[in-house]
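Residues determine shape. Take a concrete instance:
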Amino acid sequence: MEIPAITEMDVRGKRLVVRADLNVPMSEGRVTDATRITRFAEGVKPLLAKGARLVILTHYGRPKGKVVAEMSVDQLRPTLAEALAVDVAFCATSSGPEAEAAAAALQDGQAILMENVRFDPREEANDSGLGALFARLGDVYVNDAFSCAHRAHASTEAVATLMPSVAGPLMSEEINALQNALEAPESPAIAIVGGAKVSTKIAVLKNLVKKLDGVIVGGGMANTFLFADGAPMGASLHEPDQIDTVKEIRALAAEHNCTLYLPEDVACGAEFKAGTAMSLVPAAMCPEDQMILDAGPQAVTAFSDALATAKTILWNGPLGAFEIPPFDKATNMLAQKAAELTRNGGAVSVAGGGDTVSALIHAGVKDDFTYVSSAGGAFLEWLEGKTLPGIAALMRSDIAA
């Protein structure tokens, strides 16, 4: 996939209309997790140092096309300015004469944050008229928001069709990492796919078993696979209506010589809450009054042995109820194994998805993975093999800068 990148351009004196994803957690008007802001800043600081002029577009929350004072992105500005190490101006609108005048006033090395693009109902409608107004704000469009690339919105797609368009530093980094892990992985390549339901990741599993050497199935999804084999579920989360889907995925895996790994034993509890007494049983022996909440130690050993052979590790979704000890053990132990393999240079590891990132932080290994994506829905759609609208727009050679 050839996508032009802003890092390949001479940016001095150019106004860059940068679509960022600064939609971060906040409490009482203060940013509680600045990860997305700091990662964005790390990528664009070199552009500012080279004399670029940044016009930053972002969204915050879901105002549904209306001005909602508590969703103003102005509250993000202090954290953004600190991360960029420059003063950041603010414009109370994201398009129109006022926005154009504010953008035009920028000097080399300066940045301005425009108001929440989702205050305008035309944003989520992917209105070409709004896209044209965004295009008037600068010389080059830079999409640096992979986590929004699955949205066909005016600030992610429409504007990219109307001016020279390139990928930002973070976008380029994300695409390269995901391509290396999924499109051209070094073999053996193994994915860890967890989560609550098979039904939400059918497309993911079907795509992965066609491309990788093995897939470790965990979480509530593994329960449905076990149920399809006749295992009792007790009170466990599972999907009886997905048995045919499980058969289809298994057939596809066999056709493409992909090994599916399921837990040999499981950790059960009577309640879904911290401190619940844990019992370890074979995967096919869940007690009637209990629920499967994690993979067991034998499963972890088998999964770790499979990972030990891998050159590429792709992770999406925890293996169990990692939020409630002691049912975080399998996720923690396998995450630590993947991190160890990465640190020793034996494997390239790429992880993504909200719960996945939280699980890796919980396990204390987030910084040990080769790449951890901050994207949620976009990461999942990439795993499904979909072409994301925001990326497709950048691939049009006739608009490349």
The radius of gyration is 23 Å. Residues 185-369 form a domain with the Rossmann fold fold (CATH 3.40.50.1260).
